[in-house]
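Standup notes, structure subgroup. Blocker cleared on the flavin mononucleotide input:
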Amino acid sequence: MPKLNDSLELPCGVILPNRLLKSAMTEGLANTNDQATLRLSTLYRRWAQGGTGTLITGNVMVDRRFLERPGNVVIDGNGGEAALQDWAKAGTSANNQLWMQINHPGRQCQRQVSARPLAPSDVGIDLVGMFGRPMPMTEIDIRHTINRYAKVAATAKATGFTGVQIHAAHGYLISQFLSPLANIRSDQWGGSLENRARFLLETVAAVRAAVGDRFAISVKLNSADFSKGGFSHEDSLQVAQWLSDAGIDLLEVSGGTYEKLALMGDKSEDTSAESSQHREAYFLKYAEGIRNVTKIPLAITGGFRSLATMQHALDSGAMDVVGLGRPLCSQADIHPLLNGEQTSLPNWEKELRLGPGWLGPQSSNQKIRTLNFGAATQWYYRQIIDLAEGREPNTHTAVLRVMLKHMIAERRMAMNRVKLLTQG
Ligand SMILES: Cc1cc2nc3c(=O)[nH]c(=O)nc-3n(C[C@H](O)[C@H](O)[C@H](O)COP(=O)(O)O)c2cc1C
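Run returned:
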């Protein structure tokens, strides 16, 4: 059975140095031209030196008009290739893998960035007024957007990244295309699962054509959206098979959307009775299903904290790579885990009562859960900034203070961008 320290050869020939993967975490560290910065280089040098074999960047946007949040890096003819090269060099400084996550937010684009985001259909998302009503994409919008993913992948390769990940999870554009709730189109891009998956599969094909056969392509996919009538587990199994046929190298499985926060382990969204058996590895049972239908290399992300659970998951044979997000915000150096000296990674939600439940008991009110999610995420953003600025992460910082500072900083960044874009 594989151990955490074992390498893994992917179908494209790329070798992952070990079985740990740093999952994508949006950094918000771009400059006002949406270019990479030295802070990103510092951050990824620390993660690379910390021993995690594969690092996935936070989501990099394909279109300057539509961001997941101000501070996203964008590759859209806005220059900044030298900074990308610097980022790639720092992020591969331990001979590890550094893959760029590529994304378009679709309707999950904050109102302060765009009041009319593009999405598959005119189906809005009602979350405390954060998002504008989307405009349905035309055939030309769709074709142009697919080309944008391919161009960003080509730039990633040209600037020294060793792979790319297409973000098809968490309710962003591709995930919206996959969902029958967000995608109510009646053309070749909506309706049957085959049509809803067309955007993803055409994007994978365009990216593969842009980067060639020997470059790693990963897809992050929801095991399910956890919404009644949404992208289901059965849908996910079928899409995983199609992705395997399309020749991707690693499937990373996660789940949920902004509306259904399973990605952060919100148990109130979990519809299955056995969930408590896998309190740490939220999506392991789904991975078992995917493993039964395809042999595609599989990473699972969500809730892994103890060495024993990680090893148990690898021993189960259902997955090949352990994805880690939040623990790496306060601990960049993972060597103690890899050499067995550390048996458990920090679980701050438990200690600080962050995350779902922070503002009170596990709330049945979705708006409160969304606020909790925002608070927890912003607390982690703070640790990421500490790492990026060369400090030790401050885990004692108060949540409300962090939220306030974050909101002011993000608003300022959004306004500066708007000024710059309207001038240009
Ligand atoms: C601060 C933060 C930022 C995140 N940004 C992204 C992102 O850009 N892309 C993505 O696919 N997932 C993102 N996620 C989700 C993580 O990749 C991961 O799926 C989630 O945190 C669950 O893993 P964990 O329990 O190990 O933290 C983010 C999570 C956090 C905490």
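Discussed briefly. The first helix runs from residue 38 to 49.
Next: hand off to the docking folks.
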